Amino acid sequence: MPRFARLFEAAADTLNAYYQAVADNSIDSVMSLWIDEEFATCICADGIHLHGLESIRAGLGKQFETQPVTIEPLDIRVYDSLGTVVYAIAEAHQPTQSTSTPRMIYTTYVMVHERGEWRIAHIHASEMPL
């Protein structure tokens, strides 16, 4: 297998670890996947903008407390280059304590290769109109 193929597969491992950490409702696990830089950003589906790791931890932690979810990716588009991978994904966000219809969210994940590992640098989520 070519070296580059494995390099980009590892980015998918980080994305899968993110989904698992969200399902486990583990803010520490989620935060361990982020780039170690203060330029990290997250725009949540409800429009809240989080800038910097402390803000991301606080914002996502609050979401985990108020409405834990599991995320099921439905349609994945991948755009990659040597040091960056961008995932554009249609996702179903199902509240873990509800049998209601899942929210449909379109999420873009930007990952960068840092010190031999793929890390999340930016997440932008928006609710899909029905």
What would you say about this model in short?
Helices cover 31% and strands 41% of the residues. With 130 residues, the chain is an alpha+beta fold.
Question: Secondary-structure blueprint of this entry?
Answer:
Layout: H1 3-23, H2 27-31, E1 41-43, E2 49-51, H3 53-66, E3 69-80, E4 84-95, E5 103-114, E6 117-127
Parallel strand pairs: 1-6
Antiparallel strand pairs: 1-2, 3-4, 4-5, 5-6
Provide structural commentary.
The protein is an alpha+beta fold. Helices cover 31% and strands 41% of the residues. The chain has a 6-stranded mixed β-sheet, covered by helices on one side. The radius of gyration is 14 Å and the shape is globular. Residues 1-7 have low confidence and may be disordered.
Keywords:
single chain, 130 residues, alpha+beta, six-stranded mixed sheet, 3 helices, 6 strands, 31% helix, 41% strand, globular, disordered N terminus
